[in-house]
Amino acid sequence: MQTIPTGYTYDDVMLIPKRSRVVSRVHIDTSTRLTKSLKLNIPIISANMDTVTEAKMCIALARLGGMGIIHRFLPIQDQVEEVLKVKRSESVLIDRPFTLSPEQTLQEVRVLKEKFNTGGFAVIDQDNKLVGILTTRDTLFEDDEQKKVKDLMTKSLITAPVGTSLERAREILQQHKIEKLPIVDETGILRGMVTAQDIIKKKEYPFAAKDRKGRLVVGAAIGVKDDYLERAKALIDAEADVIVIDIAHGHSENVMRTIRELRQQFSDKDIQIMAGNVATGEATEDLIQAGADVVKVGVGPGAACTTRIVTGAGVPQFTAVMNAAEVAEKYDIPIVADGGIKMSGDLVKALAVGASTVMMGSMLAGTDESPGKIIFRNGRRFKIYRGSASFGAASGREQRTTGSDAIRDDIDQIVPEGVESTVPYKG
Questions:
Q1: Where are the beta strands (DSSP E) in 39-80?
Q2: Which residue, among 370, 63, 367, 71, has the nearest Cα to 201 in the 3D structure?
Q3: What residues contact residue 113 under an 8 Å CB cut-off, 6+ apart?
Q4: Confidence (pLDDT) at 56
């Protein structure tokens, strides 16, 4: 008779307290690896769910040392824009600042300000040469919506050459009492921008997780069908730090094929690939051998996921992480424990059993930074939270990813593996 192994959830296990040499919590180092080449300062990642993570969540987490994963249930360009919002939110040097043409109107400027959530633009001519700067102060009391940028912008500019250090940039900003310092080459072409706000944020968030260019880190998810390669290329071009191949059953030929395709098509890029979701050591090994830099573990443990109930498949999360981590350690590949985190102690258990980072959804869904909608019930505020495989998410996916108004013709064939619910609003 076949032996059925015992599996444990986080609730089934307690860590035995031992003697500690730590005299103060301020001395604890919470930094970790997401991949071999990408370090985070806290082991927390937000889930790539449409009611949890877009740019706002990514920015907030990265400033604290973690990272967010932009969900894939958006048109490609919209997902790219979310990545760029994170990359442009703060930087030692903004290498792709928002720009305007001198011929654009104030009406267009206000639309772009709202879209990109920025108050300042560099104004460049057709040769990409800097001709002015337009900030909120230039337009604050202007009522003529058809007025041209060239008639509103500040033309007398203080600039700095390529290669200017951050300390020197700070001195120039302070000396001239300005907020934005364009970086130009010897021909006057705009090469970047340093802002006073970015220098302030560097001091305000000393543990922020940043890339090699000093920008906040961000990941983005793709699938394994339809536009997945086109989406991946656009996200790689936008310099997403991690591409996340994410489906409910990650131990499949589709996922391994996608990993190999990405490695082949983008061999000239230093891309980091996270793949999942899996629940066994065997699956972890297969994804690592296919080329994954980090493996995401968790089939059905999430608060909004019903995969285990609907399919009868899955492994209790504590055991799944333990088995996956044991295999991954042989390859020196990190593990992400995805789902099942209801309390802070569950996060500690996941790390103790071998995970390098933990992905959370429901615990972050009630915050201001999540894209979920606020609703009122009995005088209390809640936010909508749903699984990526819930009926509502699945039935409207084509409309959200393509921008089409068409209703899925196979809607009667959807088998939900998630639920839609609410979580208390946390602020």
A1: 39-40, 44-46, 67-70
A2: 63
A3: 119, 136
A4: 96
Mean pLDDT of the residues in the chain: 88
CATH topology of domain 10-14+28-87+208-365: TIM Barrel (3.20.20)
Q: How far apart are CA 387 and CA 389, in angstroms?
A: 5
As a whole number of angstroms, the distance between CA 206 and CA 186 comes to 33
Q: Which CATH number fits domain 99-197: 3.40.50.150, 3.40.47.10, 3.40.50.300, 3.10.580.10?
A: 3.10.580.10
Integer Cα distance of 375 and 380 in angstroms = 8
Quick: pLDDT tens for 168-210: 988 998 999 888 889 898 998 999 888 888 888 888 999 999 9
Mean of pLDDT values over 229-241: 97
- Quote the tokens at residue 124: 């460049």
Share of the chain above pLDDT 90, in %: 53
Positive or negative torsion for Cα 424, 375, 68, 8: positive
- Residue 204 burial (CB count, 10 A): 11
Tokens of 389: 């495989």
| 16-32 confidence digits (pLDDT tens) | 999 999 888 888 999 99
Question: What's the full length of the chain, in residues?
Answer: 427
Work out the average pLDDT over 72-98.
Answer: 90
Tell me, yes or no, if 58 is annotated catalytic: no
Q: Which of 242, 229, 212, 207 is nearest to 334 (CA)?
A: 242
Dig out the tokens for 413 from the structure: 């064939």
Q: Which of 80, 279, 305, 419 is catalytic?
A: 305
